[in-house]
Request: fold
Amino acid sequence: MNRLKKVIRNIIVITILFVLLLMRTGIYLSPLSAHEHSERSIHYGPSKVAHIEDFEKGKYILGKYDKWVSCDTVNRELFFFWRFGDQPVGFENDKTKAVSYTYSFSNPYDKAYGIVNDKRVKKIEITLSNGDILTQTNFYDDLFLLTWKSDDNENTFMKILRGYDSYNNIIFEEKQPYEEK
Reply:
């Protein structure tokens, strides 16, 4: 075998070994690939991705599957690789409610996400335990995602979620059962 053939053979072998290593370690080349493997690992999906939002350590991937709404977390690893974070299964959409939602606290990166079932709802607003108010008026295929970062010494949780119509009338309101300590 001449030198060029040996180099080509070695490159192919190294490439195959590299791909096998990535597959065995749960590290992926793109955030969507990590998300898809996350769904496959628990026999869920494939979900229709409605929105991808960056945060300090990775990306949130907001999507729908059948009657489910999910927001998967994908984390950056080793500068340009990706690994899936929490599980992608979210919650079943309760169509009897104007806004169906859930929230997740993984300190310090917290999120509330859901779906707007009542077309009159034009704005989602959440009030946090520290008094901050977060709003969203642009939805992604009727889905919304609100994220915040808690302080180091304080867990900032969601106290109230409201849905407003175009005249700022409250269509939906739900308070969380948490008490401040």
